[in-house]
Amino acid sequence: MSLSNSTSADARALVIKNLHKEYVAGKPILKDINLTVDGRGITAIIGPSGTGKSTLVRCINRLVAPTEGEILFQGNDLVKLSGTALRHARRKIGMVHQEYNLVERLSVMENVLSGRLGYIPAWKAFLRKFEPADIQNAFRLLDAVGLGDFATRRADQLSGGQRQRVGIARALMQDPDLILADEPTSSLDPKTSVEIMEIMVRLAGERDVPVIINIHNVDLAKRFSNRIIGMARGEVVFDGPPANLKDHHLADIYGGESWMETA
Amino acid sequence: MSAVTSADITRDPFLPNWPRRFGFIGLGLYCLYALSTLQITWDRFVRGLDQGAKFLDRLWPPNFAPDKIAMMTEGLMESIQIAILATAVGILLSLPIGLAAARNLVPGWLSWTSRTLIALCRSFHPMIVAILFVKAVGFGALAGILALIISSIGFIAKLFAEAIEEMNMKQVEAVRATGASWFNVLIMGVLPQVIARFVGFGAYQLDSNLRNSTMVGIVGGGGIGATLFTAYQRFDYDFVMTILLAIIAIIMVSELLSGWLRRVFQ
Q: Any idea of the CA torsion for A96, A97, A99, A105, to the nearest 10 degrees?
């Protein structure tokens, strides 16, 4: 797919400058975030609930509008985009959601093909006239996530783990240059969580697509990422490889130490 | 377990709700007052029952004479046509109007415009609207159809807008995050969530339009209503019975049909 790894990695890099977000004036959720995320590998963002992890990730594909700052991706400042330009930027950013967010009444195949909705006109979407190559690709992705036989099932008949596999297939269907995962495992049991992380990391790795994962499970973050960003109080308080993440960092990120002793 | 003390007795587990008590007392008093001003007496009620018995007696047996049946069939067919046409056009118009009224999909000015339109459609009983259209476009089925289209919009568009406002926005957001256009979000994120309910509303409205289409004839809007009204006026109660039985049969068939529709689209 990619001509040369170094160019594709550069093209997929993300730069966040002075990002600031407040939902209520005077109560900032994100305070002056500055980050450069390389165009490859897995970046995990950890931190307590309510610290702005989710807001940060949702600012990137503009499901949330930042108050101030720049988010540079593929030559665009995502913060300034609107209308068609914003939609075109979103097409290249896949998202895996906490509660899977499949359209429950659509089939698995329709949900996966939704990843192509940025490319087809409304009448074709209405008649489900997707490109044959896209349908082929959707079947391959379903095989890759282990749901080859589920294409015609309705999404509401699937288990949580199966739904998240469809969610991953939908994101990859976009042929993305970046994948955002917002707490992809927090609605799943521990074993399924690991399976989902393995699938996501493997498939993204095969395509050399960078992944930014919000995750509150520190063990999963350490196990699957190359880089951990620790957030607390709306700020980045740790940034480095998993091996460098020590107990005193965790104490700073999550506050206190008593919760670690039982682990 | 332990003995009941005086402290236990003074603790009240249920607070008295005085506004509600006053509400019920007020309602009761008003009903008594209304009854007294309308001059409804026991004596009159008993005499009325007597008349009712005579009326019921003359309803049976129904009149199945061929000329009556032919007259009735013509009127009924027209009623069914009015109902189906009004429902079809009403559904087609309700879809965009209902969408445009959903506050979670469109800007405020548009939803308020659409809501006002819906409120106007709902403000009058179909019979009053039918009278207006009979005056505007003349006697006949057209007036009935137009009247029922208006009431269909008032019902379907309002409930459709509410269904859209209750849908799961996370599913819609996920589709939006793929870079889908507004119309594609509508087609793949919104409609799948609400279309089954929309079909349900449409089926219910067909039911309701069939009932109403037998009425609009009374004011000149076409259909069986005129025949039925004339039969009442002429004291042809046996023919009235025939028409009533036919209407009951149609409503039952439509009930089965709409139940089937809902199952198919659930």
A: -70
Separation CA A107–CA A150 (nearest Å)? 9
Q: Which of B173, B178, B193 to mutate to test the interface with A (most CBs of A within 10 A)?
A: B178
Query: Is the omega angle on the peptide bond into residue A121 within 30 degrees of 0, that is, cis?
Result: no
What CA–CA distances, in Å, run from B108 to A189, B100, B165, B170?
42, 10, 13, 21
Smallest Cβ distance to B174: which of A89, A101, A126? A101
DSSP class of A25: T
User: In chain B, which residue's Cα lies nearest the Cα of A115?
Assistant: B178
What residues form DSSP beta bridges with A33? A19
* Nearest by Cα to B258 from B127, B84, B125: B84
* Residue type present at position A59: C
Tokens encoding B124: 């009058």
- Model-level pTM? 0.81
For residue range A96-110, what is the model confidence (pLDDT) as tens digits? 999 999 999 999 999
CB-nearest to A122 from B171, B175, B181 is B181
CB of A235 within 8 A of CB of A51? no
Q: Are B153 and B205 in contact (CB under 8 A)?
A: no
